[in-house]
Write a structure and sequence with these properties.
Blueprint (H helix, E strand, L loop, with lengths): L3 H6 L7 E2 L2 E2 L1 E2 L10 H13 L10 H20 L8 E4 L2 H16 L5 E5 L8 H10 L2 E5 L9 H6 L5 E7 L11 H10 L4 E4 L11 H4 L3 E5 L10 E5 L1 H4 L12 E4 L4 E3 L13 H17 L1 H20 L4 E3 L9 E6 L4 H10 L2 E2 L1 E3 L4 H7 L4 E5 L6 H18 L1
Parallel strand pairs: 3-15, 5-6, 5-7, 7-8, 8-9
Antiparallel strand pairs: 1-2, 4-10, 9-10, 11-12, 13-14, 14-17, 16-17
Keywords: Pyridoxal phosphate, Transferase
Pfam families: Aminotran_5
Cofactor: pyridoxal 5'-phosphate
Length: 405
């Protein structure tokens, strides 16, 4: 049984008020709040255990290194990765995707080669590929979703041609909540000899993820959406693809030897982790993932499906509200527009009622263009949200409607 009240009690910020109203935090697709165990872990790492990692033989350095490196195994367990050395620490999903772009794609792709993308993508899974388009003449092949926001795997695979070198696709849209069947895409792509990168920044927090079962080659996650600290994250890269990569950044830790005439690189994953890392951030992420696994990702997913279904039913009552994308298989993310009111107006008015949502393009301008809107208001749910908070959102939207006539 998933006890949402007990979970809420673990998050101190949820008990505060905003504008003299109880906080209703519905901006989770942007960043999730932090449980006390993560806050305590970060505080303790700085106050009682801090030192640099990998470089010292003294007690604190050894302790910090142990606590930091154990997170690699935690992430591997969370993603059901075959080997923990396939987990590369990053500052988040953006760095993870850029690592693949610079380290794997840039040395291998040339003018005329193609990357298949969906219009659902976050800018973090668009801009790095535009760099290759600008600098190396790589072509981007775009696949549009269906009107309801769904993205059939066969549609992605139909875009694959003889010059396709990579498919890059979100596991879950940060705008519509669409869940993409990346397993089916990866299975079809493997038969065609095309690697697949999945952006798991949204999906990993809402559902169990098994990278081995999915069959992808690269899978990026970001810690701040996983109830961990900002500046934490990882990208899972199979050993076979790591062997094809060159280092992304140069500096300490990623080398074996350095002389005036040559360098040799450390073995992966350190080869792709230059410089002093976000030690405490990653320690906090490890605690957050253990917290999630302790609750059970299946139970979290079931609770959030209930929220999604309730929110979808309530939003459908508002026939003057336009929801962008309502795929059958989606997470609890709803982007919406209302005629006569800008998305920023909706967000501002709801904020006065203590309800936090996001307004804008959500780093997904191609998808905004697809839906013919310049901005939308987005409410995104997490494991600590409740049906009562769905009702508060609906009441707030009705209030907005009344204000704008």
């Amino acid at each position: 049984m998933f006890d949402v009240d007990a979970v809420r009690a673990d998050f101190p910020i949820l008990s505060r008020q905003v504008n003299n109203r109880p906080l209703v935090y519905l901006d989770n697709a942007a960043s999730a709040q932090k449980p006390q165990v993560v806050i305590d872990a970060v505080s303790n790492a700085y106050s009682g255990e801090y030192a640099n990692v990998h470089r010292g033989l003294h007690y604190l350095s050894n302790l910090a290194t142990t606590n930091y490196e154990r997170v690699r195994a935690i992430i591997a367990r969370f993603l059901h990765a075959p080997h923990e050395d396939e987990v590369i620490f990053t500052s988040g999903g953006t760095e993870g995707i850029n690592l693949v772009s610079y380290g794997w794609a840039a040395p291998r792709l040339q003018a005329g080669d193609q990357i298949v993308l969906s219009v659902l993508e976050h800018h973090a899974n668009i801009v790095p590929w535009h760099f290759l388009r600008e600098r190396q003449g790589v072509e981007l092949v775009w696949v549009e979703p269906e009107a309801d926001g769904s993205l059939p795997p066969e549609k992605m695979l139909a875009a694959v041609g003889p010059k396709t070198r990579l498919i890059a696709v979100s596991h879950m849209s940060n705008v519509t909540g669409t869940i993409v069947d990346v397993g089916a895409i990866a299975q079809g792509a493997r038969a065609l000899g095309v690697p697949v990168l999945a952006d798991g920044s949204q999906a990993a927090v809402h559902m169990p993820v098994d990278v081995g079962a999915l069959g992808v080659d690269f899978y990026a996650i970001t810690g701040h959406k996983l109830y961990g600290p900002s500046g934490s994250g990882a990208v899972w890269i199979s050993r076979a693809r790591q062997a094809e990569m060159r280092p992304f950044m140069g500096g300490g830790d990623m080398i074996d030897t350095v002389t005036r005439d040559k360098i040799t690189y450390a073995a992966p994953p350190l080869r792709f982790e230059a410089g002093t890392p976000g030690i405490v951030n990653q320690i906090g992420l490890g605690v957050a993932l253990e917290y999630l696994m302790g609750l059970g990702m299946d139970k979290i997913a079931a609770h959030e499906r209930g929220l999604r279904d309730y929110a979808r039913a309530r939003l459908r009552e508002l026939n003057w509200l336009n929801v962008q994308g309502d795929a059958p298989d989606k997470g609890g993310i709803f982007s919406m527009t209302m005629e006569g009111a800008h998305a920023h107006d909706l967000s501002t008015i709801l904020d006065k009622r203590g309800i936090a949502i996001r307004a804008g393009t959500h780093c997904a301008m191609p998808l905004m263009e697809f839906y013919g809107v310049t901005a939308s208001a987005r409410a995104s749910f997490a494991m600590y949200n409740t049906p009562a908070e769905v009702d508060a959102l609906i009441d707030g939207l009705i209030f907005c409607r009344e204000l704008f006539g």
